[in-house]
Amino acid sequence: MKLFNCSRSKAYQIIAELNRELEKKGFLFIRGRISRRYFEERYGA
């Protein structure tokens, strides 16, 4: 939430979207969590 500067529900929506992207690429993921490396790659954080 702090990185996104948004509400908790919006942050979880973003995480869910990133997880769907990883699933399409064939990666395993844990629901409700996202790889820091993938997050930084996508958002340049």
Q: Could you list the spans in which at least 5 consecutive residues all have pLDDT below 50?
A: none
Shape: globular
Topology, number of strands: 0
Domains, number: 1
Please state roughly what percent of the residues sit in beta strands, choosing from under 5%, 5-15%, 15-25%, 25-35%, 35-45% or over 45%. under 5%
| Sheet with the most strands, sense and barrel status | none
Mean pLDDT: 88
The N- to C-terminal Cα distance equals: 13 Å
List keywords for this structure.
45 residues, mainly alpha, 2 helices, globular
Give the SSE map:
Layout: H1 8-24, H2 36-43
Could you characterize the architecture of this molecule?
About 55% of the residues lie in helices and about 0% in strands. With about 45 residues, it is an all-alpha fold. It has one domain. The mean pLDDT is about 90. It comes from Selenomonas montiformis. This is Transcriptional regulator.
Quick overview:
The chain is an all-alpha fold. Helix content is 56%, strand content 0%. The protein has two helices and no strands.
